[in-house]
Amino acid sequence: MNRIHHWICRSGWWKKFLAQDLIPWALDGTAWGGCVLEIGPGPGLATALLAPGAQSLTCMEVDARLAANLLEKTDRGKVRVLCGDATAMALDSGLFDSVLAFTMLHHVTPAVAQDALFREVARVLRPGGLFAGTDSLDSPVFRMLHWFDDLEPVRPETLRQRLTAAGFDRAEVEIRKREFRFRAWRARA
Fold first, then answer.
1. Among the residues of the chain, which ranges form H helices?
2. CATH number of the domain at 3-186, out of 3.10.20.30, 3.40.50.2000, 3.40.50.150, 1.10.10.60?
3. CA-based end-to-end distance of the chain
4. What pTM was computed for the model?
5. Tens of pLDDT along 166-186?
6. pLDDT tens track for 62-118
7. Which of 99, 145, 174, 159 is nearest to 5 (CA)?
């Protein structure tokens, strides 16, 4: 991520937005919890908000520096931090009740890697498990904020079909002004 992006993802404004708007909207009406995997926690602002609602929380962060920083500031009794690529997770199948990803899918490039991530999420979820999260809508401002970043915007109009192809038997996508939320449930055995 570029410096502006790093600053935003650590800002008090972003923390407040996550706590009061984005995460409640993303998870509204879902039965998330139990053993939870958060993909792409970055500096961990969402992690701190999710930990109290989870029985256990595992975070998968591809950036070694961000993973190390997150590990230093988490409750190691409840939160486990792994440095790894969510497109090829070194985790057993069916470990998690919920997998959550907030505003990070656009950093997974190219689109075929996003599809690999979706398949991996379906694999590590228990049957009937929930995959939920958010991402930003593509726009000129969004692209400016990601100058020199890895960027592959997710097209919400194709996401339902992509999630179904990855092994989810039901998927929902809802768009609002600057972002969209998604919820998908792994097919039951």
1. 3-10, 12-17, 23-27, 45-50, 64-72, 111-124, 140-145, 156-165
2. 3.40.50.150
3. 39
4. 0.94
5. 999 999 999 999 999 999 999
6. 999 999 999 998 877 789 999 999 999 999 999 999 999 999 999 999 999 999 999
7. 145
